[in-house]
Amino acid sequence: MIKIRVPATSANLGPGFDCLGLALDIWNEITFETAYKLTYQAFGEGSEKLNKGTRNLLTKAYALVYEICGKKITGVKVSAENKIFMSSGLGSSAAAIVAGLYGANLTLGEPLNKQELLNLAVHLEGHPDNVAPAFLGGLVISLTAGEELIWRKHELPDWTVVIVKPQVEWLTKSARAVLPKSFSRNDATYNIGRAALVVEALRNGDLELLQKVMDDRIHQSYRLKHITGGMAAYKTAKSFGAAALSGAGPSIINFVHPQDAEKAKKEIAAAFEEREIETKSIVTNPSGIGAHMI
Ligand code: HSE
């Protein structure tokens, strides 16, 4: 039996569209046991959506490793205990992909190395900013240059992070479709400097700097206007610390002083709830480690 944990991740972090991602201390735990046939069962977050057969992102990724290694899939019983909110901008799809790849690779005696697994994950997900920190932990800057995936990981100080997820239907696919095809030079320049300084602020635990630079002109405003209560919630979060749309949304991520976390969580949630949108929320920290065996 193999049991692994894979963390939630928050991508973009404001200006770092498709390049920055942070692993969080929120985990899905997945068990792979030898069995006569392939079975899959999820418990916890998203289980009502996931328990509809054995075809899902996790089992697709699992099968891909077998195929690449020229092995025939034997039976396996997959059980997932999920804590990562689904369709929330917290990398639940990336976690499923990483779990499938990592679990299959362990089952086969680790024929693929970390970089090969990461390349497969990016191929399945389409961009590296969630899968890279899900594998590696920490704050990861990643990009693809031709065929090559280039990344650097940084461990962060112990930030306090508030996440509020509105219970709305918001798929990454639609969240990408609402973005413009091109941007002005001003908007590009605006993001480039801020993305560099977001990394600096996060690495140094500098909330004052993070508050000034965690801003964006490439994706957030285009998306927030489609999320009921999103702009109000984002503005509330900014009044407590540094805020961003987590990944493609709809969750809001807020970096705050620890003593402000509970109040921030309540008030951000209230911005949605005033508009009759229910929320789920959590106060957490970054995780310096990514997917691992337990
Ligand atoms: N960088 C991605 C986006 C993250 O903003 O669309 C969501 O998968």
Description:
The protein has 294 residues and is an alpha+beta fold. It folds into two domains: 2-155 and 288-293, 2-Layer Sandwich (Ribosomal Protein S5, domain 2); 160-284, GHMP kinase, C-terminal domain (Alpha-Beta Plaits), CATH 3.30.70.890. Helices cover 38% and strands 26% of the residues. It is built from eleven helices and eleven strands. It has helices at residues 47-50, 57-68, 92-107, 114-125, 131-136, 172-177, 185-204, 207-213, 220-224, 230-240, 261-273; strands at 2-11, 20-34, 39-44, 76-82, 139-145, 148-154, 160-166, 242-245, 252-256, 279-284, 292-293. Strands 1, 2, 3, 4, 5, 6 and 11 form a seven-stranded mixed beta sheet that branches. Strands 8-9-7-10 form a four-stranded antiparallel beta sheet. A hairpin with an 8-residue loop joins β1 and β2. α3 packs antiparallel against α4 (114-125), α7 packs antiparallel against α8 (207-213) and α10 (230-240) packs antiparallel against α11. The model has no long low-confidence stretch (mean pLDDT 96). It binds L-homoserine (HSE). The site of L-homoserine (HSE) has 13 residues, from α6.
What are the main properties of this structure?
294 residues; alpha+beta; Ribosomal Protein S5, domain 2; Alpha-Beta Plaits; 2 domains; seven-stranded mixed beta sheet; four-stranded antiparallel beta sheet; 11 helices; 26% strand; binds L-homoserine
